Amino acid sequence: MLIPIPKPLPSLIGALLLAPAVATAQVPTRMVQEGPIAKTTLEALAPTPPPVGPPPQGITFASPATYGIFAKIVWNAAPNAASYVVTRGKIDDPTCCNATSGQLPASATSWGDVGLFRKGSYLYTLTVNYADGSVGKGGMTLGVLHNAAPTQLTLTPRSPGLFRLTWDAGSVPGTCCIKIAGPGLGSSGEKLVLGGGPLDLAPLPTGSYTWRVVGAYDAKNLPVQPATNYGSTSSTSTLYGTTTQVQDNYVVLAPPSEWAEVSTTVGIRSGRYRISLEGFKAINVTAEDPFRSDGRGDEVFITTQVGEYGPGGQMVSTGMLRTPIFGDRQNFPGRVQAGTASPSGGIMPGDRYPAEVQLIKDLQPPTTNNLPFLLWEGELSEVKGLVMLSPAIWESDEGGEQLYPPFAAFHNAAASNVPYRNSFQPYVPWTPSLAAIDTWHPQKSCPTPLGNGAPTLFVPQIGGWRDEPIDMNPDHSYCPTFVAINWSLANSMAKYGTQNAAAVVEIPLKNTQTNWEYILYVRIEALAPPMQAVPVTRVRSLRR
User: Can you give the pLDDT at residue 537?
Assistant: First the structure.
């Protein structure tokens, strides 16, 4: 039941504005009855399809322009055609590789397509829009056998941290070259490789790396000029026999999602080592001075040329180190007492100095004024670092050191000489063409003199010396003994944190004419890795 509401008078409206509480009390309550809401349902009607017109005729692909990622579809002109539209889709993956030509004019009889980046079957549909409103359709399939990126992409290790990238250059038809993006390619991080490769990458430190590779095209030879590209490189060359310069432009047409990838993780092993002269043992001593003017028994000192070389055998540093004289100290307080010839020393056959130890814990720290004698300390790794030792044990006749200065000069010159370095090249790490030797193999370098101030055979140019290496040749020339120590060798002998943290190895030195003979002992010791710097955290004061 609806209750009529009387129309208020103007005086009543004023009263309501001025005294709402009073007015409310004077107006009767209004009752509203709710009724159902009318609903209207709208139904969508299917659009009326255009009349079916004649299908297009003569649909095919132009063979000279259809290869690789390119396709050129052609057709016969349709009478009364107003426009054409070509669509492309991948049959085995409808979500991939769809494209359209957009509306083409009535005069069009072909469409060039770029984008067949994945192998498989594609369906091209040609739609003809006729002037009378009718539509005709026709289609043709195209099989693509190759992807846009080369196949058989392989990363082959050549040496720790060195890799070679290879691929099948013929797997992307129509390409002139391959574009590679990734580490080891210089500051730009990419490289265009003409032809079939392979490509040797620059040395890489420890880390994880990825390379991305795709085919590239010579822009002037494209059957279709694309609206966009994903990288271009230009180069200028001069025609042979002329001064005419030609500029070539190479383009990448496939998006990054279609590039091939290959990844690897580089782990380069390394360690910190110390190399020392541990001591010597006399087998047959040198000739004794009948007047014993230089003391009882034998007196010797040791020289060692220590060279450090980097990747490829490049010399980092070189220098000769020399120990004090060992033997009888009577009347010679500057010597180090060694040997059993007298209470004050003097080296006899069978003497070993210092005394041999059996346990690693008993090895004494090396010094610079006695044995053990420090030669070198530093880091070696699979990819860099080689220590070259050239030691000699000298017979000492007090006051006869004329031969030592030219001997040291010879070693310093020979250390940087390429033929000399070639003799130990197999030990040099990061030499991809050679397997790094990791055996303890002391050997003599005794070729004919090479001249140019850097011979590998020491021929003294002076006379009247007294001190000399015990193994000099009968003609007073000298063939250096050397041994190379790389990471492989050091790691095979000493590992930090194990019970085999150090090793002592031998270098025999013998004069076959006089039968003088000593054994020199070298210690290779693995050290703790250097401490890593830890940032200091500043203490913050808090106020309550």
Answer: 44
